[in-house]
C-alpha cells in the first residue's frame, strides 16, 4: 500500500508540472487497486448513486463526496458533516460542488482545518439549474463566471478545483490563472490533473457514457461471461468439482453411516 500524500504535495505537483491523477472508489477492494496503481487521490464520489446504486440522480445518495443534503440544504450543517468525513470516515479532504452559498461553506470548512476541493463548471448536484448535463462556459459571459468562481474558491482556501465539462481553452485559462491545481473531467489536457469515474474507465457502466470518458477495459463483458459460465456449470453439475470440494477419509464416512 502506498503512503498517503499530503495536500501540500498535491499543490506542489502543479509547481513541478507533474500531472495529478484522481479516480473514484466506493469499496475497499476498488480503493486498494487504485492505491496499488499509484493514483494520487481516491475520491469517494457521489457518482456511486448512478454507477453502483443505479439511481438517476446523485441527489439521492447519502454521505459521499459531500452530497447535496450535507451542505446545500442547510449550510450551517456543512462543517458538522465535513467533520464526519474526517473523523468517522478517515478522509483527508472533502469536495464541494459550486452552488449559491458555496463560498460561505468553503470558508467555514477551511476555517476548521479541513482541506476543501472545489468543483465548478458542470455541477451534477444542480445540473437542472444549468440546463442539464451539458458543456458549460461556451460563451464569454458564462465562461467569465466560471473563471470568477474558480478564483473565489482559491481565495477561500481551497487546495484544488475540479473543472467539469468546460471547453479545453477555458480550462487552460483557469489553470494558468490559479496557483492551486485544477483537476479536469471533460475539460481537456491543460488541467493540472485528471479524474474519471472508475466504473466508466473499466466499462462497468454503460447506461450513458459522456464524450470525455475513455474506456480502458471492458470488464462488463468479461464479468458477464464469467457469471454466465458459473450459471451453466452449476446447472450442468460441473461445479463444484473435486478440485473445489473438501474431502474426508472413507473410514470416517463409514463411521458416520454406522452411527
Report what the structure shows:
The chain is α/β, with parallel strands linked by helices and 259 residues long. It has 2 domains: 7-217, Alpha-Beta Barrel (TIM Barrel), CATH 3.20.20.60; 222-258, no CATH class. The protein has 11 helices and 7 strands. The protein has helices at 7-16, 28-36, 48-51, 68-71, 78-87, 102-111, 140-155, 168-177, 198-201, 219-235, 250-258, and strands at 20-24, 41-43, 94-97, 116-121, 160-164, 182-185, 193-196. It has a 7-stranded parallel β-sheet with strand order 2-1-7-6-5-4-3. Helix 6 (102-111) links the parallel strand 3 (94-97) and strand 4 (116-121). It starts with 6 loop residues before the first helix and ends with a helix. The mean pLDDT is 92.
Salient structural properties:
259 residues, elongated, TIM Barrel, 11 helices, 40% helix, alpha/beta, seven-stranded parallel β-sheet, 2 domains, single chain, 7 strands
What order do the helices and strands come in, and which of them pair?
Elements: H1 7-16, E1 20-24, H2 28-36, E2 41-43, H3 48-51, H4 68-71, H5 78-87, E3 94-97, H6 102-111, E4 116-121, H7 140-155, E5 160-164, H8 168-177, E6 182-185, E7 193-196, H9 198-201, H10 219-235, H11 250-258
Parallel strand pairs: 1-2, 1-7, 3-4, 4-5, 5-6, 6-7
Could you tell me the mean pLDDT?
92
| Unreliable spans | none
- Note the gap between the termini: 52 Å
What fraction of the residues are assigned to beta strands by DSSP?
A: 5-15%
Proportion of residues in helical segments: 25-40%
Q: Strand order within the widest sheet?
A: 2-1-7-6-5-4-3
Can you tell me the overall shape? Answer: elongated
- The level-1 CATH class of the largest domain: Alpha Beta
Structural class: alpha/beta
- How many helices? The count is 11
CATH superfamily of the largest domain: Phosphoenolpyruvate-binding domains
Instruction: Tell me the total number of β-strands.
Output: 7
Q: What is CATH's topology name of the largest domain? A: TIM Barrel
Query: What summary fits the major beta sheet?
Result: 7 strands, parallel
- How many independent structural domains? 2
Overall CATH architecture of the largest domain: Alpha-Beta Barrel
What is the multimeric organization of the chains shown?
A: single chain
Order of helices and strands: HEHEHHHEHEHEHEEHHH
Rg, alpha carbons: 23 Å
Amino acid at each position: 500500500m502506498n503512503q498517503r500524500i499530503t495536500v501540500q504535495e498535491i499543490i506542489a505537483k502543479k509547481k513541478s508540472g507533474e500531472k495529478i491523477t484522481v479516480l473514484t472508489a466506493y469499496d475497499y477492494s476498488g480503493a486498494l487497486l487504485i492505491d496499488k496503481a499509484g493514483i494520487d487521490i481516491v475520491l469517494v464520489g457521489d457518482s456511486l448513486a448512478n454507477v453502483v446504486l443505479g439511481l438517476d440522480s446523485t441527489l439521492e445518495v447519502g454521505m459521499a463526496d459531500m452530497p447535496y443534503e450535507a451542505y446545500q440544504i442547510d449550510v450551517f450543517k456543512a462543517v458538522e458533516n465535513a467533520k464526519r468525513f474526517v473523523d468517522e470516515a478517515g478522509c483527508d479532504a472533502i469536495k464541494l460542488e459550486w452552488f449559491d452559498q458555496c463560498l460561505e461553506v468553503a470558508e467555514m470548512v477551511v476555517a476548521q482545518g479541513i482541506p476543501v476541493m472545489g468543483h465548478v463548471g458542470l455541477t451534477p448536484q444542480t445540473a437542472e439549474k444549468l440546463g442539464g448535463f451539458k458543456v458549460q462556459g461556451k460563451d464569454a459571459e458564462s465562461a467569465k463566471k466560471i473563471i470568477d468562481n474558480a478564483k473565489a474558491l482559491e481565495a477561500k482556501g481551497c487546495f484544488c478545483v475540479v473543472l467539469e465539462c468546460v471547453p479545453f481553452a477555458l480550462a487552460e485559462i483557469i489553470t494558468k490563472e490559479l496557483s492551486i491545481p485544477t483537476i479536469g473531467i471533460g475539460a481537456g489536457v491543460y488541467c493540472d490533473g485528471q479524474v474519471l469515474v472508475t466504473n466508466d474507465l473499466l466499462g462497468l457502466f454503460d447506461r450513458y457514457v459522456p464524450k470525455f470518458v475513455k474506456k480502458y477495459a471492458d470488464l462488463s463483458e468479461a464479468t458477464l461471461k464469467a457469471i454466465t459460465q458459473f450459471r451453466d456449470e452449476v446447472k450442468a453439475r460441473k461445479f463444484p468439482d473435486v478440485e473445489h470440494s473438501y474431502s474426508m477419509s472413507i473410514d470416517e464416512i463409514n463411521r458416520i453411516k454406522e452411527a
